[in-house]
Every structure is written in C-alpha cells, then in structure tokens.
Model the fold of this input.
Amino acid sequence: QVQLVESGGELVQAGGSLRLSCAASGRTFSSYAMAWFRQPPGKEREFAAGISSSGGTTYYADSVKGRFTISRDNVKATVYLQMNSLKPEDTAVYYCATGGGHIIASRRLAEFDYWGQGTQVTVSS
Done:
C-alpha cells in the first residue's frame, strides 16, 4: 500500500515560481520511481515529470523541460516539483503517482497504480 498526498498548489502570477510536495506513506518509498502528472481544466491528465527511485534519472515533458525540476528526498519520503517561469497554460491540478517500479518505463497513465488527491495550481496572466 502506498498513500500519496500533494501540497503546495497556489494561485501565482505568470513568470512566478512554485514548489509542490508529495509526501508518501510507506516504508518502500525509496524503491519507487515517482512521477508528476497534471490535468488542465477540460483536458486529459498528462505526464509532466518523473524520477527514478534513486533520483539519478529524471524525465520531463517537452512542455515543462527547462522550467520544472523534479527531485526527491528518500529520507523524508517526499518528492518535489520545482516550477519556475510559470505560464497560464501550466494551470492544472497536479498529481503525484507511482507505478511501484524502480524506473519510469512508460508515461502512460495506466502504468501508474497509486495516485495522490491532487493539488490545484493556477497561473494568472
């Protein structure tokens, strides 16, 4: 069993920064690759960023590459998403998720079995 709780979503102005956190409950957190997905209003959920269990490998959607940074602290059992240079199109509910594996082998939603409740990020123009 894995429980994930996101926090940090806020209303921010375009060009601003925000850091999201995802706290994981479970003693095997350090064995799990983690990912952030986002779901803009009226659109389907999409992959944003991923990180291997050790933190040594990261993945980013083209839309966020260079602006977002995913990281993790396995001692605190927390994964982060640092978001810089935010744009209105970044407005979405952000979810953290894991498929239970060591690496991000796929960006398909169906590969991720555990999800947080989501946190709202709104970027004003």
Notes: The first strand starts at residue 3 and ends at 7.
